[in-house]
Each structure stands twice: as structure tokens, then as C-alpha cells.
Amino acid sequence: MLARRIIPCLDCDLGVPGGRVVKGVEFKKIRYAGIPWKLAAKYYLDGADEIVFLDITASHDRRDTMVSVIKKTSQEVFVPLAVGGGIKSKEDVRDVFNAGADKITINTSALNHPDLITEISDLYGRQAVVVAIDAKRRYELEDCREIVQTPEGPCWFECSIFGGRKFTGVDAIAWAKKAEKLGAGEILLTSMDKDGTYDGFDIQLTKEVVHRIKIPVIASGGCANPAHILQVFQRTDVSAALAASIFHFGEYSIAEVKNYLSERGVNIRL
Question: For the whole model, what pTM was predicted?
């Protein structure tokens, strides 16, 4: 297997001048974490393999703010940058790529207009398209769902859009398979139940999605310590782990996490 990746995530609130990084719990209870390009530069120097920027207050009139953030970041950060939030068209994609991004992540627009995945993939290559899936457990079982057996009982996972504010009725595992066929090069898989809880990654969800598709999957949601990252790497074939709170608030550095993983036999870039 290729080296596993450690990816810090910067949830950006661009409703203030210059933007700011924030972090929530289960997509709520938001608190301030720092300045986007300054945090990105810190993580680059500390050994991040990639950095994800998500515009959580995305709207058309704030697109220029995100472009400005990426321009500033790309002047000092030389690892792949993925940008998501409010990307609705090929023009939006062009703007963030021209600013210095290497990948785009799409969630709401991908579910609402699946052909956009193919259009972007055809223009820029499959490697440039990351489909983000924000999934929540549902224990009310229905027909035609991908049922997953968990210690808490059988469930399925529902996709949400608009930053977790609206649910779609779409099965997350089935959507991951479809996104791959449409041209996605990677899946950013976030467990809404685990997000910001410090309870560890949703192993059952992650394992099922990784098992069903061939493109790389990034695990997201719930990381509290290096042991949680080790667990998701040992128990699933996920290619990367994404974390936010443990890095933003100084609990662990990326270098500390990587050394911990390397000492325990995980193939990691040091």
C-alpha cells in the first residue's frame, strides 16, 4: 500500500474580513481556531501531506475571499491543496485552480448535479475531483438501502448537503459507488455522528465504503488522538485520515502523530 496520508482540515468562515478557521461539534457549536493561511503554513512546515479548505459559509459573494485565501496560502505552502464549499460550476472550479488549488471537493453540487463530477473530471483529470460525503446513521431501516451491521445495531447512512443542514434520503454507500463511476478520484468521508466528538472515526462506515469502491477514501470525523488514526489505518484500508481539532488547538502536532504511527509500523511520510 502507498504511504498513508495525514490531512489537516480548515473549516473556513469567510463571513468576516480575511476569513477565519472554526471548528464545531456534530456540525454545530462553532468556535474560533485561527487564520486560514497562517494555520496552513504551520501545518505544511510540520509535515502535512495535504491540506483541505472547506468554506462552511459558502456563497457567491464570498467566493473572492476564498480565492484570496488560496492565493496567499499557495505562496508558502507546497503540498496539495483541496478546496470545497459552494463550488457550483466549472467557472468556480477554474477560479480556485487558478488561485493555486490542486483539487476541489464537492458535496451539495455533486448530489444536486451529478454530471458536474464528470465535467470536472474530463476537464482536469479524475485526480482533481474529490467528492465529499457527510453521512449520518439511520436506524429506521428501509428497502433498497445499504444496510451496515454495527455494535449499535443495523443501520444505513444518509447523505446530507448544505453543511449538514439538509438531508437528502440518499444512501451514502450507494452514492460513493455512483460518484466513482461518474469520475470522482477520491472520497472525503465524514461521519456526522462522530464529527468533533473525540470518540474516534466511524470504523463501520469507513470500512464499508472503502470495501465497495476502488478510489482512495479519506476518513473524517471524531479524531481525538494518534491512537484513533492508528485504529482507522489498522482496521480499514483507508488511504488518509483527516483531523482538525487535535491540530488546531495544539493537542498534537502532525509530526507527533506521524512519529507515533511510524513507530507502530504504519507506512507514513516523515
Answer: 0.92
